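so im writing up the methods section and need the Putative 3-hydroxyacyl-CoA dehydrogenase record in one place, dumping it here so i stop losing it
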Amino acid sequence: MSLEGTSAIVTGGAGGLGEAAVRKLHEAGAAVVIADLAEEKGEKLVAELGARAAFVRMDVLDDESVGSAIAAAGAMGTLRYAVIAHGGFGVVEKIVNRDGTPASLGGFAKTISLYLNGTYNVLRLVSASMATEDVDGSGERGAIVMTASIAAYEGQIGQTAYAAAKSGVVGLTLAGARDLSSVKIRLNTIAPGTMMTPTMAMVGEEALEKFASSVPFPKRLGEPQEFGRLARDLIENCYINGEVVRLDGAQRFAPR
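--- predicted struct ---
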């Protein structure tokens, strides 16, 4: 399946899992909008990729900046694909702290806002744009891939906010796919385990070895390019819809 003549938006596309998705879609022939707040990294990636790549500074919770990314994608080709892979915030806090005080509502709300509300906002605006296009040769208007986490299923101690947000993305997948079926858009989700992103690489060798030891096989952290490849597969395979695919080497998070 060739993606030539089409365009895609990747949130969080300037680094980590999002960057890997940008590279794979660009490699497949799509024009790609790197939608991120990290301007310097985004522009550097555009300079590397050259033609069919553009950077748009985008806040997933801001309709105007999402609209700018949609417009930029439309200027480069028919907008048919999106990978929602942004990150940037996390709070580690137990519901009741050691001193007996409750967790802050603010940290929980901010996490839900970024990972769940932000995902939904991009999903609704991008799919509304796709719905105005003619169907392609396979009879669909587009495909969208969201990003959850295996923490949605096995949230660890202190991860209640993140686990709740990512569980929301998992719950959104099938219901969203059913909603979007009427406009011929597919929706799938990737739930990564522990991935070797630039942020993860900063934790140190000892911590990385500990994380890798909990993965049955292959006994290592996942590579971002494996996420990018799966995102592209979910976009290119027209019969995969409403699915959440774990990308984790059979890893299951322990309580801590």
